[in-house]
Every structure is written in structure tokens, then in C-alpha cells.
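Data card: per-record layout.
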Amino acid sequence: MRKLTKELSPEQHEELIRVLKTRFEKSRNRHKGLEWDKVHAKLIANTEILYSVNEMERTGGEPDVVSHDKKTGEFIFYDCSAESPKGRRNVCYDREGQEARKSFKPQDNAIDMAAAMGIEILTEEQYRELQKLGNFDTKTSSWVKTPSDIRKLGGALFADRRYDNVFVYHNSAPSYYGVRGFRGSLRV
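The structure for this 188-residue chain is written out next.
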């Protein structure tokens, strides 16, 4: 895993804000009733958060606001790319799964990558919420947060959309595929 700088240059900052604003305005169905100015204020108030959003963008996640937590005042971003983010595919579920591979080990795993990015892997419930906003992962799949009782037995969960339905499946945690990555969430 590479060491990441957690600060953006002024140019990166400006470009990221421009991309996020454009996406926010084009995808109003994801965040009805929310105002960009309030989201923008939260984003620029915390450079670590902005770094994490940039990592979501850099790895192909196309982050966008999907809801607002009225209790905490936080805006919730999910990866909204049509398919599982390209820069996060070909990874095992977690480090234990990655280390269990005897040959052809992938370079990384979903849990460690998400932690390094400062995001959380979507839960099954969050993944289903995302799918209500559009058709995602129709050709790919995404690891989802796996309950500890399943993980203790060597398994991990992933999900996708096929036949106009959302499916959640299991696989062994050491498995990885070129079309499976992971989606994340971030509270801002």
C-alpha cells in the first residue's frame, strides 16, 4: 500500500469542487431538497474529508451526496459510478483473505483500501439504498460489509444488480475478480 498525502493542492481542491458541484446539479434525484452551498461549506471546512472525497473520485467512484442526516447535520456521500470503481477492483475482501492466498495474491484488499481512503465500505442495507437511486453494478459487483459471524467462517459478501434485481452473494474472502471492487460511503 502506498503512502498518501492527505492534502490537496489548490488546483486539485478547485477541480474536485467543480466536479462535485457539476455532478450534484446533474443528479438532483439523488438528493432532492438539498442545497449545494450547504454541502460545499461542509466540504471546505475539513481538509481530511476533502482528501477522502478526492480519493473516492480518483479511484473512479464518482462520489455524490445521497442523503442528509438531520440529527448530525452530516451529508452522506456514496460512490455513484455506474459500475464498481475501476481503481478498486481485483482485490480480496480483507487482509486476512489476501494473506490466505497461496499464489496470485492481489496487491490490496477492500477493507485496507477503504481505511486508507478514510471511507467505509457500503453495508448491504446501504447498497440496497443506492440501488433505489439508479441501476448500479449491472456488469460488475461490489464487496459489501460482511457480518463478523460470516467472516469468521471464511466468507465475505458481495452484491450486484442483474435482471432488474439486487442480489447479495457469498464468496470466500481470499477470492478476487477483475470485475469486483467495492463502493464506499463518507459522512461530511
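Known properties of this structure: The helical segments are 10-26, 36-44, 47-58, 95-100, 110-117, 124-131, 148-152. The first strand starts at residue 63 and ends at 68.

See the next section for split statistics.
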